[in-house]
């Protein structure tokens, strides 16, 4: 998420003390919610990003397509 789009969002992934082999088997799941309702947030979509597909030594910036719950894994 760009700070220009959402100034409250600062994209940062911090990992420490987790063996690299464990990280490569994990997935980062991001959910985007709407703040429209007074009592509940509405799910706009989500995406799963497999950490094994990323070079964790390099910063990764980009756009990911949101899918419905349970879909959209990259």
UniProtKB/TrEMBL annotation:
Key words of the record: Kinase, Transferase
SUPFAM superfamilies associated with the record: C2 domain (Calcium/lipid-binding domain, CaLB)
Membrane-spanning parts: none
InterPro entries the record matches: C2_domain_sf
The organism's place on the tree of life at top rank: Eukaryota
Annotated GO MF terms: kinase activity
Protein name: P3C2B kinase
Annotated organism of origin: Spizella passerina
């Amino acid at each position: 998420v760009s700070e220009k789009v959402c100034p409250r969002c600062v994209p940062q992934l911090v990992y420490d003390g987790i063996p690299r082999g464990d990280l490569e088997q994990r997935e980062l799941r991001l959910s985007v919610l709407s703040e429209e309702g007074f009592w509940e947030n509405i799910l706009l979509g989500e995406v799963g990003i497999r950490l094994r597909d990323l070079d964790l030594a390099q910063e990764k910036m980009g756009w990911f397509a949101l899918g419905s719950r349970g879909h959209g894994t990259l």
